[in-house]
């Protein structure tokens, strides 16, 4: 099985990387160092995670002790408050400073929805409601393209966009998106959106591939626990692998990159150790069959007894389309 994906930009992206959302400042530096020591070649970051500086400290130390910049693939993301054209390049430059590098490998628009412009990551009105904005995706994308032309990033892409939003960019761009980062795991296989991307030459990265058990709102309502699914546990025993490794391998075998987050050295090691076995076609089908079309990363609220997306009325909200 390939350990890398070829991007439309001509660049090569590792198929396994380290996620950094929720990794606390005191922990993320060690997590990144442990990952690099264990041969990770991809670190997934975002301005909004608030920990890029600590990731940058780990990278700086590793560069000083011999790691070459081209040996590590670094992704970061443009936050929702920075979609206006004048904000895109400065925002990328801010991430470069934080991360102690002079270019990114991949820069993604984090979400299709824009928030009110400014330094507040989650701008809210007096009643505590998020303040949205409407910025044309093509305005933002043009500046993403400028980032490539200026050598600030090798590749560009999007995250959390649906197929219609991606098609709009494809129809109006000079540089196509190289990657889509979305939630995908065995309870939320996203087959149609993955097929759409692959047909268009766009590589796909699965976020929350383990079901994001430490998502901030976990436990606020009853939700299925992916890592404890009996089918996955049983296959773990069959292949002498952990449930996490089965979940990651199932994705990688579909040519989908995975970015599991961990700050635990033993898990960081085990999450990369998925290249010495193959899940049989029969077992792949068994994993396919546990799909529940279940999203973990879209907090919901109950309105008049009905479950709705919390941000469902936001402009450009992506998740009402079929895919
Ligand atoms: N573009 C976007 O909008 C989004 C991007 N992302 C990106 O994707 C990354 C991964 O997604 P995330 O939501 O963090 O969730 P994951 O599915 O990666 O789950 C992370 C959790 O699983 C635990 N864990 C890690 N490895 C194992 C293992 N082998 N066995 C059991 N438990 C394990 C971690 O614990 P511990 O750390 O304690 O070891 C942590 O609690 C993010 O960190 C971020 O980089 C995520 C969400 C949205
Ligand atoms: C983790 C993340 O990237 C979110 C929720 O946007």
TrEMBL record:
- What PROSITE patterns does this protein's entry cite? ALDOKETO_REDUCTASE_2, ALDOKETO_REDUCTASE_3
* Organism encoding this protein: Dimorphilus gyrociliatus
What the entry lists under PANTHER family is as follows: ALDO/KETO REDUCTASE (PTHR11732)
Q: Which controlled-vocabulary keywords does the entry list?
A: NADP, Oxidoreductase
- UniProt site (Lowers pKa of active site Tyr): 77
Binding site residues for substrate = 110
GO MF annotations in UniProt:
oxidoreductase activity
Q: Where is the active site?
A: 49 (proton donor)
Domain NADP-dependent oxidoreductase residues, every copy: 17-291
Q: Name one Pfam family in it.
A: Aldo_ket_red
State the superkingdom: Eukaryota
The protein's name in its UniProt record: DgyrCDS5806
**InterPro entries linked:** AKR (IPR020471), Aldo/ket_reductase_CS (IPR018170), NAD(P)_OxRdtase_dom_sf (IPR036812), NADP_OxRdtase_dom (IPR023210)
Q: Which family does it belong to?
A: Belongs to the aldo/keto reductase family.
């Amino acid at each position: 099985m390939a350990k890398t994906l070829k991007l439309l930009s001509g660049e090569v992206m590792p198929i396994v990387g380290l996620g950094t959302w929720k990794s606390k400042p005191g922990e993320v530096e060690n997590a990144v160092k442990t990952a690099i020591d264990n041969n990770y070649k991809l670190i997934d970051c975002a301005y909004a995670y608030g920990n890029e500086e600590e990731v940058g400290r780990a990278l700086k130390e590793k560069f000083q002790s011999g790691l070459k910049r081209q040996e590590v693939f670094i992704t970061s993301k443009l936050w929702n408050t920075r979609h206006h054209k004048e904000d895109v390049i400065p925002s990328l430059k801010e991430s470069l400073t934080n991360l102690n590098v002079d270019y990114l490998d991949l820069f993604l628009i984090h979400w299709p929805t824009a928030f009110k412009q400014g330094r507040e990551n989650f701008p809210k009105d007096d009643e505590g409601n998020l303040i949205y904005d409407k910025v044309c995706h093509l305005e933002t994308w043009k500046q993403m393209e400028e980032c490539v032309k200026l050598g600030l990033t090798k590749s560009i892409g999007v995250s959390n966009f649906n197929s219609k939003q991606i098609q709009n960019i494809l129809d109006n761009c000079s540089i196509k998106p190289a990657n889509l980062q979305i939630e995908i795991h065995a309870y939320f296989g996203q087959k149609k959106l993955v097929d759409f991307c692959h047909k268009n030459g766009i590589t796909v990265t699965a976020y929350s591939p383990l079901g994001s058990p430490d998502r901030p709102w976990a436990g606020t309502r009853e939700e299925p626990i992916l890592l404890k699914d009996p089918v996955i546990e049983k296959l773990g025993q069959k292949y002498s692998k952990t449930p996490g490794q089965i979940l990651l391998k199932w994705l990688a075998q579909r040519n989908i990159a995975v970015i599991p987050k961990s700050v635990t050295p033993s898990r960081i090691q085990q999450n990369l150790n998925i290249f010495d076995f193959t899940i049989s076609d029969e077992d792949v089908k068994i994993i396919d069959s546990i799909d529940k079309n279940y999203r973990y990363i879209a907090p919901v609220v109950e309105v008049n007894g009905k479950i709705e997306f919390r941000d469902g009325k936001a402009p450009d909200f992506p998740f009402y389309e079929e895919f």
